[in-house]
Amino acid sequence: GAGVSQSPSNKVTEKGKDVELRCDPISGHTALYWYRQRLGQGLEFLIYFQGNSAPDKSGLPSDRFSAERTGESVSTLTIQRTQQEDSAVYLCASSLVGQGSQPQHFGDGTRLSIL
Amino acid sequence: TQLLEQSPQFLSIQEGENLTVYCNSSSVFSSLQWYRQEPGEGPVLLVTVVTGGEVKKLKRLTFQFGDARKDSSLHITAAQTGDTGLYLCAGGTQGAQKLVFGQGTRLTINP
Predict the structure, then answer these.
(1) Residue ranges making up the domain that contains B57
(2) DSSP letters of A51-71?
């Protein structure tokens, strides 16, 4: 498809397990963003990629969270030793270039539930 | 730190009524975007405003960027149940690599 694709759409796992969330951005978009959205809340910035580099990781809440991007395309967000407070929707967005004025195109998110 | 405050946080009105939601900051932005997010989906861009005082219309939705580029408003005329959703404003600045998002206004239009 032409849009941003995220997988899985839903993930239920036990506390303490590791999870990997995947994002396929729009082809040709050099900038990629990860956000967290808790139930009923706005967007919490996690990390920004320009190409395969992450110049801004300031939103990652702890060292249990990491992300990488390869081939200036797919990105994975990994959460190690999950905790119940990690339960949220994780949204990925891409834009043509990494400028604040550029519109961001969002995927439908991965809904993560930690039991 | 740049912040965008949206008000009201929640709004529930009857179909056919008019409403305005606000997005305010003490910081100047070079552009302001409005997104709508429906349940189970990601936010979708509605409009971008870039000039102080700019007004853009999208059918029944009217967006305005403040003269000083610190605030914006979204006015909906004759609201419909399909307008229900979370409305997010996001500010961009020259040289910045990411948008600053407000916390959103959750709008419910009752039939």
Answers:
(1) 5-110
(2) TTEEEE-TT--STTEEEEE-T
